[in-house]
Amino acid sequence: MPIATVNPATGETLKTYEAMGEEEIERRLQLAEATFRTYRTTSFEERSALLRRAADLLDEDNESVARVMTTEMGKPLKQARAEAAKCAKAMRWYADRAASLLADEEPDAADVRDSGASRVVVRYRPLGPVLAVMPWNFPLWQVVRFAAPALMAGNVGLLKHASNVPETALYLEDLFHRAGFTEGCFQTLLIGSGAVDEILRDDRVKAATLTGSEPAGRAVASTAGEMIKKTVLELGGSDPYVVMPSADLDRAVRVAVTARVQNNGQSCIAAKRFIVHTDVYDAFAERFTEGMKALRVGDPMEEETDVGPLATEQGRSDLEELVDDAVRAGAEVLCGGERPEGPGWYYPPTVLSGIDREMRIHREEAFGPVATLYRAADLAEAVLIANDTPFGLSSNVWTRDEAEAEEFARDLEAGGVFINGMTASHPALPFGGVKRSGYGRELSGHGIREFCNITTVWQVA
C-alpha cells in the first residue's frame, strides 16, 4: 500500500509521501537510542509536565486534527472529535498517576528476612526504544494509549503508522515536539510494512507493540520471538453481544446499534455477533433491524451522519465477500447487504440471520457495519456460540439476573466482559484479549508496566 492520504468518501488521492530510506531510518534509530540515555533519567514531574502540555495542545487542535482523521479514514467528524478528546484525557490520566503506578515496592518484611537480605526493593525501569505498529481505525487513540504510558515510564517511541493515515502520524510527532519532548522521544517512521522486520531486529529497539490484523501480529511476534524481545499484541475481534430474557430490551437494542456501527463498524471491540435468547429473539431482531435501517449513511464531515465510508476500497471488498458468502450459504438479509452506487467506499448497515458454522462470517471478523444474529435456547447455548470463535477480545452481556451475570463473567473467553453496557476502552481499565485476539494489556497500571524492566534490588547492610 502506498503511503498516501486518500479520502474514502470520494476515493480521491489527496497527498502521497515517499517512504524513508535506509539513511533516514538509521538516523532516527541513532537518535532514539541517544535520547533514551538521558530521557530515562528524567523525573516523573518533568515527564508529567510535558505530557500535560501535549494534552493541552491536543485540546486546542481538536477540530483540526478531527478533520484530518475524518479525511484520511472516514469516521464521522463528531466521533473524530470525541477520539481526540479521549486522547487528551488519557494523557492527563497517566501524567497524574504514573509516579504511583511505578512506585518502588517493598516485599513483606518477613519475606525480606527469609531471603537473607536486609532490604529488598522492586523497581520499574524503562526498557528503551519501543516500536509501535499501529492501525488506521482509531489513528490517534491507538497511538496515544501506547505513547502516554511508554513516555511516562521513561521509554521512547518509534511509530510505524498505517500507510493510509500519514498526516495523522506526522501530527502526532509534531504534537509531542511542540509540547517540549526532546526530538528523539517520539518519532514517526514513514515506512511500508516491509521495513518493520529489519527495524524490529535492530538491537537498539527493545520491544514492540502492535494493534492490527492477525497476519501482522504473527509476523511481529515471530520476529520478536526470534530476537527475544517483549511484545504486546492487540489483534482482531468478533465480539459477542448476548441478550437474555431479563434484559432491558429497549436499552439493549439501542446500545446494540451503536455497538455495531461505531467507527463505521471498523472497531476490533465493536459488537459483531448478536446472540439472543429465543424468548426475546424475535422482538430484538425486529427492533434492531429497524434501528440499523434508520441510520444515516453519508458524508462523514456532516454532523448528522451516523455511518461514513469504509476506510479502504479493499476493506469494502473484503466485507462484501463475507456477506455474499453467507447469503449463498443460506443466510437471510434483514437489511442492507448491497453496495450503493456512487463515489466513495460506502457499505450500508446490514443485518444477517440464519448464520451457521460453515459460513466464513461465522469464523472471520466482519470489519464494517454488518451484524449477524444467532438464536440461543438458554445460557449454556449462548456461551457455546459466544466462545465458538478464534477471537477473544471483549464481550457484552445483557441480563438483570445476577447469577447469570456471574456465570457469563466466569465462562466467556474474552479479555473483557461488559454487562448491561457497550464495550469501551478507558485509561483506568486494562485492555486486551486472549486466543487469536492477542496477548498483553494496554492501559491502566498493567499497560504502563508492560514495557518496564521489573528489577529486584536485593541488599545486605
From TrEMBL:
Residues 3-457 form the Aldehyde dehydrogenase domain. Signal peptide: none annotated. Keywords: NADP, Oxidoreductase. InterPro entries: Ald_DH/histidinol_DH, Ald_DH_C, Ald_DH_CS_CYS, Ald_DH_N, Aldehyde_DH_dom, ALDH_GabD1-like, GABD/Sad-like. The keyword NADP applies. SUPFAM superfamilies: ALDH-like. The keyword Cytoplasm does not apply. Belongs to the aldehyde dehydrogenase family. This is NADP-dependent succinic semialdehyde dehydrogenase.
